[in-house]
Specification:
- The protein has 7 helices and no strands.
- By secondary structure, it is mainly α.
- It folds into 2 domains: about 80 residues, Hypothetical Protein Yqey, Chain: A, domain1; about 55 residues, Arc Repressor Mutant, subunit A, CATH 1.10.10.410.
- The chain is globular, with a radius of gyration of 18 Å.
- About 20% of the residues are buried.
- The mean pLDDT is about 95.
């Protein structure tokens, strides 16, 4: 079963169970997926679905931070609840040690020696860490490693 089919099946089960909050988040996710299908005129693969889920999680984290800064704890809590529902569709995150090993291995594998090679390293890591690590943090770690090389 593809990830998109899993989301659709979860929508049906949330409808049957009467889980209004979960159903709302899943419908929002399906709408974002449908919009991407229409905009890009593509059939969605699991990788594209993962990218969309990551984007939605990132948006909610940013919103939650804004609500926290604006002293709106009820809205922050709602955004955090949506994140927990969306994270169900992301693969198991990489442990810090696994991520460091992946970065080191990729740098060696690509033959990167300076910050100029960062794009090549990030492209290679992106395939393996998609949905399993925050790519902004990965980018910072790669940059630090290459600057120290």
């Amino acid at each position: 079963m593809s990830l998109k089919e899993q989301v659709q099946a979860d929508m049906k089960s949330a409808m049957r169970a009467g889980e209004k909050e979960r159903l709302g988040v899943i419908r929002m996710l399906l709408a974002a997926l449908k919009q991407r299908e229409i905009d890009e005129r593509i059939e969605l693969t699991d990788a594209v679905v993962l990218q969309t889920v990551e984007k939605l999680v990132k948006q909610r984290r940013e919103s939650a931070a804004q609500y926290a800064a604006g002293q709106r704890p009820e809205l922050e809590a709602r955004e955090l609840a949506e994140i927990r529902i969306l994270e169900h569709y992301l693969p198991q995150p990489l442990a810090p040690a696994e991520l460091e090993a992946l970065i080191d291995e990729t740098i060696r594998g690509t033959g990167a020696t300076s910050i100029k090679d960062m794009g090549r390293v990030m492209n290679a890591i992106r395939d393996q860490a998609q949905g399993r690590a925050d790519m902004a943090q990965v980018s910072q770690q790669v940059k630090a490693r290459l600057a120290g090389s």
